[in-house]
Amino acid sequence: MNSPFVMIIFGATGDLMQNKLLPALFSLFSQKKLPEEFHIIGFSRRELSDNEFTNLFIGLSSKEGWGDFAKHLQYQRGSFEDVNGYSELIEKLNTFDKKLGACITRFFYLATPPQHYESILNFLQKTKLSEGCGQRSSKWTRIIVEKPFGKDLETAIALDKKLSEIFEEKQIFRVDHYLGKETVQNILAFRFANGIFDPVWNKQYLDHVQITFAEKKGIEGRGNFFDGVGILRDVGQNHLMQLVASVAMEQPKSFTKEDLRDERAKVIKALKYIEEKDVNNQVVRGQYKGYLSEKNIPPNSNTETFAAIKFFVNTPRFQNVPFYVRAGKKMPRNTVEISLIFLQTCHILFKEYGCPEIGNVLTIKIQPDEGISIRMIAKKPGIKLALEPVTMDFTYQEAFMTKGVEAYEKVLLDIFAGDQMLFNRSDELSSSWEFITKILNGWKDNESGIMNYEQGTWGPQEANALIEKDGRKWL
Ligand code: BG6
């Protein structure tokens, strides 16, 4: 990336900026992956000077190179709902253009809670900030939108309509940072660059698929954001859908933006909707005990911090193979992984020597301990014949001595390069919203359907029942 740029981050005093965006930008700067001329403008409501803004990132300030990086940071105070901040922003941006003697590329990053998107977009349009450099040409601007894109299907469509009224599709970057994770990108390499897996990656050999997205942390002071969202919208509609798409998609014609997005979209479109009447049977929602006493949570909140879902992907490859997916906060450990559980085919020959209940399992560890493991059955050493499961592991750390590029760094580099391959296309999003909205509607009239669970457990008992009634178990 050599061209100068300015990135305006709305919601710059928030959690995303603190934990992901600014650390990623600083890391890119330290690796000399940013151009000489760049500016980062934090836009938020709080009254702060440039210096006070910079001091918010206390965790980074002791690191080498921070002083040089911090010179590129500025702050713009403004309410998202009032034109004044935007007008002042225009003056700032104009000075950069003047100094450079050319139009500097403008990236507008929406890192606020989603309820502010509409207002920010309206002001970008009204003030013509969206057009960039006063040339009536929008080619010098890009808009970056963080998830959740809307609250349900209807609001997602409205948001998309608004975006496309102001920007061309090639300027719109809908971020799902899970697509930027090495391990998620590796799913395709693993599946399609190794001929031995494809023939068994289907309903003929698979019993079911499990995905677990577990976090030890709770909502960590993000009550304002989280309570209006819940885990299903926060990680289900986006990160989990993308994991499902990577595991279930067909081989794309090429590694180009459209071919890859086409295949992802096909899987999401093929999800068998859970009709409202079946929601209770196929979906479990939970809330950890103590959630109601967290900061900014209404005392009667029904927001879920855990969800487990059973569903099907209606493609020839996966027809009738159940997917069991669960996501939760305050779980016993941090783990995001996908497991393909193969039909137990332990030969009759071995039945009396103890065929384990579960046979081959292929687990893709998205994080931590990024890697892949395959569970096999082996003869236990000894005079007598006895069988026992063993695992064969590949870990990024051991094989490559690195975990790879941090997801937000990849996301930012792709934005700078204008590469949309790892960003959501609007049809992928509307299909996933359609699926999720049915579940949300099923919950609407069933306020009592939310189960409490103890912190540090794998969610409510009902989540076990969801899979156990089919004669299976969470791994
Ligand atoms: C974010 C969610 O998108 O992803 C958070 O809003 C969640 O609630 C986070 O904790 C998980 O991302 P990662 O990269 O830390 O696994």
Defining key terms:
475 residues, alpha/beta, Rossmann fold, Dihydrodipicolinate Reductase, domain 2, 2 domains, 9-stranded mixed sheet, 6-stranded parallel sheet, binds 6-O-phosphono-beta-D-glucopyranose
Which helices and strands appear, and what pairs or packs with what?
Blueprint: E1 5-10, H1 15-30, E2 38-44, H2 50-55, H3 66-70, E3 73-77, H4 83-100, E4 105-110, H5 117-126, E5 141-146, H6 153-166, E6 172-175, H7 182-193, E7 206-214, H8 223-226, H9 230-248, H10 257-269, H11 279-282, E8 283-288, E9 306-311, E10 323-328, E11 335-342, E12 361-367, E13 371-379, E14 387-395, H12 396-400, H13 407-417, H14 426-444, E15 450-453, H15 461-468
Parallel strand pairs: 1-2, 1-4, 2-3, 4-5, 5-6, 7-10, 8-15
Antiparallel strand pairs: 7-11, 8-9, 9-10, 11-12, 12-13, 13-14
Helix pairs in contact: 5-6, 6-14, 9-10, 9-14, 10-14
This protein binds 6-O-phosphono-beta-D-glucopyranose.
Residues 177, 215, 234-235, 407 line the site of 6-O-phosphono-beta-D-glucopyranose (BG6).
